[in-house]
């Protein structure tokens, strides 16, 4: 546990400043995500997955560059952009060259902007930003930069995959789109409308609305509207408590068609849906099946659950980040020159990872191209379930190398 | 001890009385020198970042205290004025034709004007009465503006906010503000300037009347002052300085988001100000230093920082309603009597064990938390640079023993401290 | 037409839940002059205690025991915390409850963790009571309505028909006189605070299973209950009831019907700028009622405070 409580403000400040000298032999990766506050559960679970991945996949395999270890250093950003920028500065001062972050596109936008400015102004200690989960398409389009790499499929790619599946389902005639009122919710809605219009112009969009994010106490009125519209399927980008509230209300109100979502698993949500979500909740994500195809991955999950019985191995992209970074550092022969590492990372194809399928870091925009799956919420035997509930995700459809040719507006400036 | 600050329980405002102490020129000069050498003592970028954050919060907290401490107006939505000032600045920074001709150090002025403009609009109806009506209107407006920030994307940029680049401004004597240190001096300058101006405002007849209206609006009315307009002017001036803080935020972080407007930020500034002490001009400054260290430094060390911050805050409200500044100023009589020296030994005898008692209790809390929430098999925890097994008996025995002994010592020393306190506050030969 | 009826029921459930919280809050405020910022935190404690007890005794044990525990905790807070701060005045009291709310959230995370706990509705009530035009009304909602109405009637009876109620009513207006008559006013204060928080606890126990039991649940509900009592008029039980129902229905209907700002603006004679995505006013034109449903109560509150500071049913200014 990293909890070493040091009281005394002056001591702490001095320590903070001198801490940079210690542990020079490790390659440190700053994990900047919420560890306190309402999103702490997700952040803490992600941290465990990083620590576990660094330990199992890199350090126990002999490290990188002939014996250097990965060390994950946690920074609590309280999901606040301001606090993230402060912690970024602290991380850079400690000599950290690699930043990973994923929760909230708002934070990711602030970080990528700040890192781009920092690298321009301080060419001596540049850093890389490995974004493992923020899916705002703009990050690899208008706002792309050389220092940012995204390991998750972005919102449009996922919607592309989702609508491929919807398009094949002849039973779906009417679709209801509902989401949180902010950039991601709007992006999901816009992508759904445009892709559906392209692939299945006959589908009628019977509802397209936004609700305030994190403020709705009771979703029943929205659920009534969904029922009243006689929709065959619902598409939503909701996450967290908003996903749970919306999904539960819709199901309780007697809706039995599919609810297509982005984030409706783990962190207590799978357990809370339980039996009621079966056959209804469909999730679009990257990663492996449950149980995964490779024996190695099954072992990995078992070991993880042994160490963190209450945790979930819910973000398979985290292992991709760790493994691909290790390979890039090894190929570049240095961990200090981030430009060399970035050059190895872009254009990398990686296929012997933990999960099946091939990964390709597209050089034009630093977007990882990978298989995207549509999962169904159903019974899954332990330890491959989520929240120890006996329920989990199983692959129902797979889009190989999803959206490999999707357009990007990125005009990357290279150093 | 609290009785010293609360002269009359039926008149709460007594406790909030602004310090009668007049600050001369010397403290300001010392403060300026201190601000100048600070980056030399702490040269690293992260220390400077934290100091920048502190300075910005100080300006904001001082502005907030103009309302709470001097005007007796409790606002639950003051972040809105800082936020709007900041957003105004970010948008100005993005207007290429304008920003090219504006040296960056003048930018906060526009932030102030932005905050002030909003304060004029809101103040025109919210300052008609003080007390609960004012507090609830501020809460409502705060919630409305925060909600608008995700709806009105044109101005607030949605949840990802609006960003800008400070280096695009006109170079100021060749300085482009590429580095944190240059930004630090800009912010420090504005901090000093704002603090001096706010202090001078509290000395004007207007500032005095704010105190009078806070303490007894009826009497102020009889004297011929409209308490409403006095509140309005305080509110507008406070909005201006909050906007300046917003402008400084825009310069330092180069981004403003929904977070700058929401109720959490408004609540935090209330906490900061009250922790430092609303009754004294320098109270919010102390509160800012303490709170920023807790939030930024302690949170690196423990997940439970919010828990400790909450405890600290509650203890302050319950036992030292004058805040930390009030606690310091309690010693003024003893110093004036020249007997402060007599307190040092009793303080040491009492507070050294008390310090260890606090550490011991914190250790127990951390250990309970570790046993409850750490992953299975991870029985090793480190605390105070010691690493041990949280599931073994020994560390628990040690922690409990240290806490118990320290508490006992503190208790035993308390009567002597009380006696010393009474002695130090009693004029020679007089009775208490 | 059927949808209107369904919405009326949904709004009623939301409104009555709000009422259970605001009833206690308004009593506490009118008696002690304290806006209890931690009120929603006691609601959260109710949900968590209900969850914890339900693990051993099932839901019904939690429904009985949890509010009692919350009430005792509330009385303890009044006795050992608020009473001490009371001497410093109202602002520190308010700030005290504000800090308490933060602390309770931290304590809840400390004990139960940060995830949502799986607190579900009891199996006896897991069926559909009736349906209207394909919309099912779960039995649990009917149960919630009955509990809230029973509590309202009980409160009304205690406050207007019993001796203790008379003392409370008198202490509301003339605390000094009541004290002079030999009643122990501090005890009455403690009792009212305990009872008010216990009511919040009841609300937590029955709302936890439907609205989710997680550390942020107090924050979500936090300020809306102030809005309720301010709109209703401080100290008025009827005001709290009417305002709660009003808010329940306003938000439900605003969510259910897509009223668009564009229609309103056109009706007012404005012309829609074209193309809309390029206009500085695009966000205003595209606002719909579900987007702003949950902030409507705040607008209402600000308007009421400006034009009728005593609220709908209040006898004196806030």
From TrEMBL, chain A:
CDD domains: PBP1_SBP-like
Position of the signal peptide: 1-24
Domain annotation Leucine-binding protein: ranges: 27-375
Gene3D superfamilies for this protein: 3.40.50.2300
Family: Belongs to the leucine-binding protein family.
PANTHER family per the UniProt record, alphabetical: ABC TRANSPORTER SUBSTRATE-BINDING PROTEIN, LEUCINE-SPECIFIC-BINDING PROTEIN
Protein name: Branched-chain amino acid ABC transporter substrate-binding protein
Source species of the chain: Flavimaribacter sediminis
Automatic annotation (TrEMBL), chain B:
Topology versus the membrane: Multi-pass membrane protein
Keyword S-adenosyl-L-methionine found: no
Transmembrane segments: 21-42, 48-67, 79-99, 105-126, 133-156, 183-201, 232-251, 271-294, 306-332, 344-369, 390-409
Sorted UniProt keywords: Cell membrane, Membrane, Transmembrane, Transmembrane helix
Protein name: Branched-chain amino acid ABC transporter permease
Domain of life: Bacteria
InterPro entries xrefs: ABC_transp_permease, LivM-like
Regions annotated as coiled coil: none
One Pfam family linked to the record: BPD_transp_2
Species annotation: Flavimaribacter sediminis
């Amino acid at each position: 546990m990293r909890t070493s409580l040091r009281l005394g403000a002056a001591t702490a400040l001095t320590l903070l400043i001198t801490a940079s000298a210690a542990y020079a032999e490790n390659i440190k990766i700053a994990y900047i995500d919420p560890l306190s506050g309402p999103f702490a559960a997700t952040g803490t679970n992600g941290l465990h997955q990083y620590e576990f991945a660094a330990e199992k996949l890199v350090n126990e395999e002999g490290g990188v560059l002939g014996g250097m270890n990965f060390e994950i250093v946690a920074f609590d950003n309280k999901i606040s952009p301001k606090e993230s920028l402060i912690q970024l500065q602290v991380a850079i001062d400690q000599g950290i060259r690699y930043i990973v972050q994923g929760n909230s596109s708002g934070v990711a936008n602030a970080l990528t902007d700040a890192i781009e400015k920092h690298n321009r102004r301080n060419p001596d200690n540049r850093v890389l930003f490995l974004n493992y989960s923020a899916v705002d398409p703009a990050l690899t389009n208008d706002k792309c930069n050389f220092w940012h790499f995204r390991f998750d499929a972005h919102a449009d790619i996922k919607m592309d995959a989702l609508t491929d599946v919807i398009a094949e389902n002849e039973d779906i005639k009417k679709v209801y789109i509902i989401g949180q009122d902010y950039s991601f919710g709007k992006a999901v809605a816009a992508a759904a409308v445009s892709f559906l219009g392209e692939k299945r112009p006959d589908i009628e969009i019977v509802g397209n609305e936004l609700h305030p994010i994190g403020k709705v106490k009771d979703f029943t009125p929205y659920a009534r509207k969904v029922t009243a519209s006689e929709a065959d399927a619902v598409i939503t980008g909701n996450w967290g408590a908003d996903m749970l509230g919306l999904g539960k209300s819709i199901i309780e109100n007697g809706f039995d068609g599919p609810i297509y979502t982005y984030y409706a698993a783990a962190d207590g949500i799978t357990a809370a849906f339980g039996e009621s979500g079966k056959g209804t909740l469909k999730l679009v994500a990257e990663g492996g099946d449950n149980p995964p195809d490779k024996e190695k991955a099954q072992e990995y999950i078992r070991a993880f659950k042994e160490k963190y019985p209450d945790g979930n191995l819910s973000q398979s992209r985290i292992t991709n980040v760790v493994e691909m970074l290790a390979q890039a550092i090894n190929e570049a022969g240095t961990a200090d020159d981030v430009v060399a590492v970035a050059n190895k990372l872009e254009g990398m194809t990686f296929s012997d990872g933990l999960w099946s399928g091939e990964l390709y870091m597209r050089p034009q925009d630093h977007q990882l191209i990978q298989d995207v799956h549509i999962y169904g919420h159903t019974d899954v035997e332990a330890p491959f379930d989520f929240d120890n509930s006996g329920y989990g995700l199983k692959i129902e459809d797979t889009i190989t190398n999803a959206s490999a040719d999707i357009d990007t507006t990125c005009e990357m400036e290279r150093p | 001890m609290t009785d010293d600050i609360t002269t009359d329980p039926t008149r709460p405002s007594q406790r909030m009385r602004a310090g009668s102490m007049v600050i001369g020129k010397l403290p300001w000069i010392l403060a300026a020198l201190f601000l100048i050498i600070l980056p030399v003592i702490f040269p690293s970028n992260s220390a400077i970042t934290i100091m920048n954050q502190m300075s910005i919060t100080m300006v904001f907290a001082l502005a907030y205290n103009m309302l709470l401490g001097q005007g007796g107006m409790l606002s639950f939505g003051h972040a809105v004025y800082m936020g709007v000032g900041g957003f105004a600045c970010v948008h100005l920074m993005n207007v290429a034709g304008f920003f090219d001709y504006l040296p960056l150090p003048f930018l906060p002025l526009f932030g102030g004007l932005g905050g002030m403009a909003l304060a004029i609009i809101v103040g025109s109806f919210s300052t008609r009465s003080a007390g609960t009506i004012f507090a609830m209107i501020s809460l409502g407006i705060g919630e409305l503006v925060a909600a608008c920030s995700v709806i009105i994307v044109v101005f607030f940029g949605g949840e990802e906010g609006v960003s800008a680049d400070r280096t695009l401004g006109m170079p100021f004597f060749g300085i482009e503000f590429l580095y944190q240190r240059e930004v630090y001096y800009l912010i420090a300058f504005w901090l000093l300037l704002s603090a001096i101006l706010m202090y001078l405002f509290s000395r004007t007849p207007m500032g005095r009347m704010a105190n009078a209206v806070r303490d007894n609006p009826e009497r102020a009315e009889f004297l011929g002052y409209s308490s409403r307009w006095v509140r309005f002017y305080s509110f507008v001036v406070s909005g201006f300085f909050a906007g300046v803080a917003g402008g400084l935020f825009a310069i330092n972080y180069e981004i403003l988001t929904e977070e700058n407007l929401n109720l959490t930020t408004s609540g935090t500034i209330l906490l900061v100000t009250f922790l430092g002490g609303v009754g004294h001009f320098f109270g919010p400054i102390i509160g800012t230093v303490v709170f920023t260290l807790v939030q930024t430094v302690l949170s690196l060390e423990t997940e439970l920082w919010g828990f400790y911050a909450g405890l600290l805050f509650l203890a302050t409200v319950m036992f030292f309603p004058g805040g930390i500044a009030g606690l310091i100023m309690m010693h003024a009589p003893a110093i004036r009597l020249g007997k402060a020296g007599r307190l040092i030994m009793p303080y040491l005898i009492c507070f050294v064990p008390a310090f260890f008692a606090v550490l011991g209790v914190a250790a127990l809390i951390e250990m309970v938390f570790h046993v409850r929430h750490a992953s299975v098999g991870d029985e090793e925890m480190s605390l105070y640079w010691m690493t041990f097994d949280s599931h073994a008996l020994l560390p628990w025995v040690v922690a409990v023993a240290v806490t118990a002994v320290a508490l006992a010592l503190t208790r035993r020393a308390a009567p002597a401290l009380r006696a010393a306190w009474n002695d130090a506050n009693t004029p020679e030969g007089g009775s208490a | 037409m059927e949808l209107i009826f369904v919405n009326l029921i949904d709004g009623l459930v939301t409104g009555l839940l709000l009422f259970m919280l605001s009833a206690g809050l308004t009593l506490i405020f009118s008696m002690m002059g304290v806006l209890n910022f931690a009120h929603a935190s006691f609601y959260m404690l109710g949900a968590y205690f209900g969850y914890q007890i339900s693990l051993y005794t099932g839901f019904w044990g939690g429904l009985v025991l949890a509010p009692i525990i919350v009430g005792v905790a509330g009385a303890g807070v009044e006795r050992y915390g608020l009473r001490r701060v009371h001497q410093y005045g109202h602002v520190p009291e308010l700030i005290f409850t504000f800090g308490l709310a933060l602390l309770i959230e931290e304590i809840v995370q400390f004990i139960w963790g940060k995830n949502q706990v799986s607190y579900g509705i009891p199996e006896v009530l897991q069926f559909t009571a009736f349906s209207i035009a394909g919309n099912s009304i779960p039995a649990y909602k009917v149960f919630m309505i009955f509990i809230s109405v029973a509590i309202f009637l009980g409160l009304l009876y205690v406050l207007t028909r019993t001796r203790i109620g008379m003392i409370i009513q008198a202490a509301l207006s003339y605390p000094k006189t009541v004290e002079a008559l030999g009643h122990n006013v501090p005890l009455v204060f403690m009792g009212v605070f305990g009872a008010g928080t216990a009511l919040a606890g009841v609300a937590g126990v029955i709302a936890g299973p439907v609205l989710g039991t997680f550390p942020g649940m107090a924050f979500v509900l936090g300020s809306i209950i102030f809005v309720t009592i301010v709109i209703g008029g401080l100290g008025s039980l009827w005001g709290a009831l009417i305002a709660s129902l009003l808010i329940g229905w306003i938000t439900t209907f605003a969510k259910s019907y897509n009223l668009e700002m564009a229609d309103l603006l056109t009706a007012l004679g404005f012309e829609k700028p074209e193309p809309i995505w390029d206009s500085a006013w695009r966000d205003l034109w595209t606002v719909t009622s579900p987007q702003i449903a949950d902030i409507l109560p705040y607008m209402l509150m600000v308007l009421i405070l400006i034009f009728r500071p005593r609220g709908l049913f209040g006898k004196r200014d806030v």
